[in-house]
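User: I've been going back and forth on whether these two constructs are worth ordering. Before I decide, could you fold them both?

Assistant: Sure. I'll take them in the order you sent them. The first construct and its structure tokens:
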Amino acid sequence: MKQLFFELLQVSIGQRECLERGPEPEEWQGLHELAQRQCVAGICYRGVERLFEFGLRAPQDVSIDWMAEAEEMREQNEQSKKPSFVTRYYNEDLRLLRQSSDEYYLQNKPMTIEDLYRLFLEQRLNMRVVVDYYFLLCQTERRYETLKMNSLTTIFLGWFGIRRFARGLMWVLRETMGMDRSLMLCKPWGHEGRFILQEMFDGHQRMEMFKRYQRL
């Protein structure tokens, strides 16, 4: 199910044309629920629309609910007087489908790996944040981002923990979004990436995460 979800996400952002196989009716419902939990239902609906061209259609009840949800997001974003800072990095056809949220970074400053690391430790990292970061890296080509111990935040959170997390996140970006290696901050690390994904989708072990990342 997760693999299908990642493939749907890649279709949604234009990284692939179609799924490896057509989902079963109950799998479409599962994909919708996963997208809702990870706060990317609007983004994933763009993929659902693109799959129509290949004859892959969700059951009518799932499709109607998903479409209504996406249209509600479009209307809210169109009427918003203060759109999210990060939407400037999104593809034009996806900007209005990003689910709004309480911002987790400064309005006038792109998020950094430190911001994502904090969210992960606080158990607030989800696929919406990963999609945000994906588009930001693609559009800025890493020009703003560093992995140096050059701030009090980095020192407080721990350089080695951030570096380890960054390598895992690069693997997550490759596996879930199909990110090109040339856009990554550092070499991806599958072992750490799988741990991050597990915690994002199934994890409830905050203290274990703190211990893991502070262990040197």
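The second construct, handled the same way:
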Amino acid sequence: MPLPPLTLPTIRHLVRRRPASPHPFVRLPAPAGSPAASGLPGLPGLPDLSAKRVVDLLGAAALAGLFALPLLVTAALLYAAQGGRVFVREPAAGLAGRPFLTWRLRTDAAGRLGVTLKRCALDGVPQLLNVLRGEMSLVGPRPEPRTDRADRLFVRPGMTGLWQVSARSDLPWEEMALLDRHYVESHWLGMDLAILAQTPRAACRHRRS
């Protein structure tokens, strides 16, 4: 049975369904300066084994295997179309403001191929490497080089998120910021899975628009 589109009423319904008390599958935003906010687990030297991180690792590994061959073919086509570098790295602010570089396909001089990749958001597939490295999550606010909204730094930036599956670029900036804040304050595993399930449909919808 297909999931309903993640409209604002649906998002608020998901927020209301979030467990009121800590749950093994919920990762709440950590206070600034805490070990969790710095990207480290509660005990130094131990890996992050939260349910969200486990889903990120398993999902990113599966998607990397699925997209490996198409990515190689696309990279070859991009190289033939524009020459030079196929990948670019862009600065972003991660968990607790920690800076890192995101991976992305270079599409600025690839003509129609580049336009298609950007419209389908496939130029960001190399960010699976950032997810595997722990710099990003599959679901979270869009990575930005800097932000004046400190709440975004309580979670890892994501490859997809609430505003991407709601209406993509059709949303005004203020509503994108509101959806990011909804996610930061209320995210839980069920919301992440719903967003991931809606992402392919959102990409196809954007491709046809």
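Notes on the second construct follow. The chain has seven helices and four strands. The two ends are 25 Å apart (CA to CA).
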